[in-house]
Amino acid sequence: MQDIKELSLKALEKKILFWGYPQYYTQSIFDWIYQKQVYDFSRMSNLPAPLRKILAEHFSALSLRLVKQQESSDGTRKLLFELEDKGLVEAVSIPMGSYRTGCISSQVGCKFGCSFCASAVKGFKRNLTAVEILDQVLYLKQVSLYPALSDRPVRASAQRLQLTHIVFMGTGEPLDNYDNVLSAIRLLNSPDAFNIGARRITISTCGIIPGIKKLAQEDLQIELSISLHSPDDKIRSKLMPVNNKYPLSGLIESCRGYINKTNRQITFEYILIKGINADLADAQSLVRLLKDLRLAKVNLIPANPVAELKILPPQKGQINAFKALLVKSGLPVTLRKERGQDIDASCGQLRLKYGKN
User: Fold this and answer.
1) Can you tell me whether residue 101 is helix, strand or coil?
2) What does the pLDDT look like over 106-143, one tens digit per residue?
3) How far apart (Å, rounded) are the C-alpha atoms in residues 233 and 356?
4) Average of per-residue pLDDT across 187-211
5) Number of neighbours of residue 129 by Cβ within 10 angstroms
6) For the chain, percent helix, then strand, then coil, each to nearest 5?
7) Residue 256 · residue 293 · CB < 8 Å
8) 295 DSSP 8-state letter
């Protein structure tokens, strides 16, 4: 059975007209699914009963099954989903002041084996379809409107916040699943569907140079984030084996080309890992790498502890000193707040803990 979210508004209009109904019912169907989070066609009360029956016979509307959810004391909520083939993926809803950001997955597992990430521990299974990507967002939209999921105390301000931002920073490499990710983004951005502004959608990549070059030609106003994590090829290759294929020199040049083509800022994600990449010498090398790159920003991320990978964050004093050196050099810098450490919030941790797939 086809998932109705595979259809654009115009494609669904053709079917509605073919079945003998006015095309304006199409927008009603989209509103029920994307705005009201109603996936049972029989509950779409402003549609004629015969049309509801036809829709139920031809389409499904939600392909994921929620199998586990965890909630942090800071309001972060992590959801584990089972796919139709029993694979598992994760998504996270993160309170960010007056709104929530949804962190979603693009693949089941990951090919790239970054040493600080739990996503690839059980290997790569397959790409997610555009529909499976969008279903994560539909669930997160529901979660963002609910009060606390458990009896644990959660900040009142984090309980009912609208989901307004999406980041492809969950399990998998988005640019390795390019076509499905871009199809999902177009529906996320569509006024007829999710209506999430392009500048509120971020793709985070480990540095797939051909994907970065291709994305530069898309004429999209989305945000691009690069997982950098070391300014040294030798260390970065140990942390991120993808660097052996796409080393820093080529990566930085592709980023320069992206900036020149799109005039969009690139954020360089830098996970600070104790004893690996968090010394002041690393900060100085990072400045040298990025100082001539127009429209570059650094986002420092204290590592979430991952017991299976023996990953620990540096002490706060070391983190602050690292940041201070970058600021003094003139690089725009943000420091991400630690989120969800009490619920295994790092990518792949919940899947690793509860599933075989």
Assistant:
1) strand
2) 999 999 888 877 776 678 899 999 999 999 999 998 87
3) 34
4) 95
5) 18
6) 40, 20, 40
7) yes
8) T
What backbone torsions phi and psi does residue 164 show, to the nearest 5 degrees? -125, -15
User: If 0-12 CB within 10 Å is exposed, 13-18 middle and 19+ buried, where does residue 297 land?
Assistant: middle
Task: From residue 228, give the alpha-carbon distance in Å to each of 6, 17, 200.
Answer: 34, 50, 21
In total, the chain counts a number of residues equal to 357
Both tokens assigned to 326: 């970058």
Neighbours of 246 (CB within 10 A): 19
Residue type, position 20, single letter = G
Distance between CA atoms of residues 168 and 107, nearest Å: 10
- The mean per-residue pLDDT over the stretch 166-180 comes to 96
Q: Both tokens of residue 239?
A: 């942390």
Q: What are phi and psi of 70, to 5 degrees?
A: -130, 150
- Parallel, antiparallel or unpaired: strands 266-272 and 296-302: parallel
Looking at residue 104, its amino acid is I
48 and 123 Cβ atoms separated by less than 8 Å: no
The predicted-structure confidence for 42-61, as pLDDT tens digits, reads as follows: 999 999 999 999 999 999 98
Reference 114, options 237, 202, 231; nearest CA is 237
Contacts 24+ apart (CB under 8 A), 316-320: 318/272, 318/278, 318/279, 319/272, 319/278
DSSP 3-state assignment of 201? strand
Short-list 47, 52, 137, 46, CA closest to 89: 137
3-state secondary structure of 116: coil
Kindly list the catalytic residues: 90, 347
Q: What are the structure tokens assigned to 147, written together?
A: 């009060």
98, amino acid identity: S
